[in-house]
Write a structure and sequence with these properties.
alpha+beta; 4 helices; globular
């Protein structure tokens, strides 16, 4: 079986070591390298582990699969658009387990109407990972608070609204929060 592990890994901007550490259970960069080059046989189990580590479907790692991809036509930089030095692809994002979405109905802060925010849900022990990031916090009666998490102590979160002139909010012991991880915007 011919795999595209290396292509997809590079498209994600990850090193062999990054992928090895993301595998569950973790493995070594050398093992990932051998699986990429075909010096070690790729089993279905390995294919699934690596696909999960890369955030793609296993079919995206197999040549001839029906996975979605976009060919890179140009690289945009300070000197304008240039052709890539070698063939490259971009693998469209896929929702991960535990992610939720926010649809932006009208512009607020850096967000425009029509934007989609893909958010990772976090449990109380992981709230520190969301400091200085935009978060969604559940409130009583089906309401929510959205803003920048600016401080956290043992029981309270301090949220700064994105609207100009908005007052800081303090939320005590939310059961979960969702941190913005990906912005999807149509141009």
């Amino acid at each position: 079986m011919i795999t595209r592990i290396r292509e997809v890994r590079r498209a994600r901007g990850l090193t062999l070591d990054d992928v090895a550490r993301r595998c569950d259970p973790p493995t070594t960069a050398q093992t990932i390298g051998r699986l990429e080059t075909g010096t070690r046989t790729v089993s279905v189990g390995w294919l699934n582990r690596i696909a999960k580590a890369l955030g793609v479907e296993a079919q995206d790692l197999v040549e001839g699969g029906d996975g979605a991809e976009l060919k890179v036509a140009a690289i945009l930089g300070a000197s304008g658009a240039t052709a890539p030095r070698k063939a490259a692809i971009v693998v469209p994002p896929r929702a991960e387990e535990g992610q939720i979405a926010i649809l932006v109905g009208s512009g607020v802060g850096d967000y425009r109407a029509g934007d989609e925010l893909w958010c990772d849900t976090l449990q109380p022990g992981d709230y520190a990972r969301a400091l200085n990031r935009d978060v969604l916090i559940p409130r009583p009666a089906g309401r929510f608070l959205f803003g920048r998490l600016i401080n956290r102590d043992e029981e309270k979160l301090q949220i700064l609204p994105l609207e100009a002139g908005g007052r800081q909010q303090v939320v005590a012991n939310p059961p979960w929060l969702a941190v913005a991880a990906r912005l999807v915007r149509a141009l």
